[in-house]
Amino acid sequence: MNTLHFRYAVEIEKTRSITQAAENLFMAQPNLSKAIKELENTLGITIFRRTSKGVIPTDQGVKFLGYAKQVLIQIDNMESIRSPEKSAGSRLKLSAPKTGYISRAFAEFAASLSESERIDMQFAETTAMNTISNIRENGFSLGVIRFPLKHEKYFSDYLNEKSLDSQILWDFRAVAVMPSSHPMSCKDILDPEELSLASTELIFDGNEIPYILNLRTAESEDISKKNRLFLCDRASVLDSLSSINNSFILTSPMTAEELSIHGLTQRQCGGEKFRDLLIYTSGHSFDETEIALIDKIYTERNKCAFN
Q: According to a count of CB atoms within 10 Å of the terminal CB, is the N or C end of the chain lower?
């Protein structure tokens, strides 16, 4: 259960308006509504109902909000122990996978800050395991990790072992992104095996899984008939896709704007299911700056096709 959603619910109770609460929380109203719906589904109760006097809590909602406020008070008390040089809002560090919607969200967020807001920001694109290390050891407050859903238990156990909490950002099925001139781009749905045998597949290196050593050996296959190009950063992937006519990458859906800029297209291909997961230290208290960035990430995610 996510304590960030507790803050959302308490703000709605205070304002009696989802629209006003979203404004106060520096987030989009649809994202707030979705978060509350997810919280209600998790709890198995209805927290709020709409009336002529605004949004008010149900009887079960009143009980939940009472407990939620107690939890938030305790979290705030723990946060107050930290030293002044770590005061909230002065530093924002995000570690994330090499994916377009998160990097755009970070850039858009940075651009939205006024000149009077003095915040030291750092954005690192790296692997899931490095992101976990960044949260645990390198002072990053927020991280996003990506992994195949078939490996969910490995990551869930590992995050618990490292005392990290999480919330789901996106569950998606990988799509094939390729040059618009790719010989198979005329098909709406592609056969992944046929695509792989006829094309050069671009792959991000460093897809480690907790408790599994040498993933490529563990999931070995005959690649003698396949062309693969392992790359370490997103910019090189975009350059390679633009230069190699029959190349492709299996990745998260991209926005129509980004595809157009780089002369790319994307096709459904029955790709593997993945999860993007927001992670942070257990009991972390989100400040307004972090909430605003998370909302921007959700907004950019929602612009992607096939979601």
A: N
